[in-house]
Amino acid sequence: MSGVRVLVGTRKGAFVLTSDEKRQQWNISGPHLAGWEIYHVKGSPVNPDRLYASQSSGWFGQVMQRSDDGGATWNPVGNEFKYEGEVGTHLWYDGTQHPWEFKRIWHLEPSLTEADTVYAGAEDAALFRSTDGGLTWQEFSSLRAAKGNLWQPGAGGMGVHTILLDPTNPQRMYVAISAAGAFRTDDGGATWKPINNGLHSQYIPDPNADVGHCVHRIALHGARPDVLYMQKHWDVLRSDNAGDLWTEVSGNLPSDFGFPIDVHAHEPETIYVVPIKSDSEHFPPEGKLRVYRSKSGGNEWEALTDGLPQSDCYVNVLRDAFAVDTLPSCGIYFGTTGGQVYASADSGDHWMPIVRDLPAVLSVEVQTLP
Amino acid sequence: MIRVALPYHLRNLAQISGEVELEIIGDVTQRAALDALEARYPMLRGTLRDHTTTLRRPFIRFYACEEDLSNASPDDLLPAAVANGEEPLLVVGAIAGG
Fold this sequence. Notes:
The complex is a heterodimer. By secondary structure, chain A is mainly beta. Chain A is built from one helix and 30 strands. Chain A has one helix at 141-144, and strands at residues 3-10, 13-20, 27-32, 37-43, 51-57, 61-67, 75-76, 89-91, 97-99, 104-110, 118-123, 126-130, 138-139, 159-165, 173-178, 181-185, 193-194, 215-221, 224-232, 236-239, 247-248, 257-263, 271-276, 291-294, 302-304, 322-324, 332-335, 341-344, 352-355, 361-369. Chain A is globular, with a radius of gyration of 19 Å. By secondary structure, chain B is an alpha+beta fold. Chain B has a single domain (2-93), classed as Ubiquitin-like (UB roll) (Roll), CATH 3.10.20. In chain B, strands 2-1-5-3-4 form a five-stranded mixed sheet. In chain B, strand 3 and strand 4 form a beta hairpin. The longest helix of chain B has 11 residues, at 30-40. The chains are: A mainly beta, B alpha+beta. Chains A and B meet through strand 6 of A and helix 1 of B.
């Protein structure tokens, strides 16, 4: 019998939520790695029982964890992240140049083909890879060569928060960085280029600059990997040419500020966002928690509300806290800063909370199990 | 033989219960103690000292014999009572405040 395993990272540990394909009854396991911030947990597409987790603490720094049994048990692996070569500098708050300093891993992206290979997105912004199951890590310093001296942290830090692997072209990857923008490699990471043409950001000196945009998330569908979707600080956008040019598709959204964006597992033009009131007020407009769905790849959006709180709701949904499964009736999942994890087993038409009172949710991933 | 007491989260990370006892050859310094600790428990590398600089992480404190040794040189000798195992070297997560 098939089922799903939802991997939840929170401010105070990791949780593993499991259900059968009906996704109505849930078993909740955790907290794992209790008391630590778990920025992200993600499983290998090659071996679903191989999970990687980013565990960190203001006291003890970065720890990386690996599970080989689907999250039942965990073992620490390597946590040494060294910037390669000349460390270099990036733009600092006061306009000076500041050396790169490793702080934590925000995002993990296991390889599509090798269970021991996993990519890690770091703050200060850098991309690392392990090919030995997380024991050792090597940086793609080539990413920082893509105008890294012009990247500048926002208030939330300067981190690689999104890593997308093109399933049809192993030489092509995308990353997105707060607050630098989106970048692409077409040669397996040897070189990278900014792909921010078409973005317009009023909060930077040159609204059309090559880098410096606060991209919150990018997403793609594996069947059409040249089509990218983006939730920027403000604006929802799409690109039909692998990021060479972006077009705004915010359309009738009540607010085009938000964090996550994701694509339906079986409908490449069906996308989801969670509008947030503004950059100054990180909660849903009107106190109504609404997921918005577009079945046309943007511009025309419908509110999905059935089962979600429609009054007095002031939680946020962070960029890594939204996921979709691949069951025939696509499941949609998201977690909130209020500790709720919501699930829909029917593409967002109806929602139910899986769990209501976890610590603030930082990330949600889902595995579809055979 | 010296004794080292770790904070809760690091005991969990290293799967330690109670204090750690370490044999140190030569001078008993903070650096020697931490080197021996990390050699026994590699998963603690980077959690007490920065990997690259080997400097104490900002919110880690080292106490012993009712003294704060956090800002002492890592190559200073630890108190004799620590060196001979009468007293533990206390590794403490700084108070969070709030």
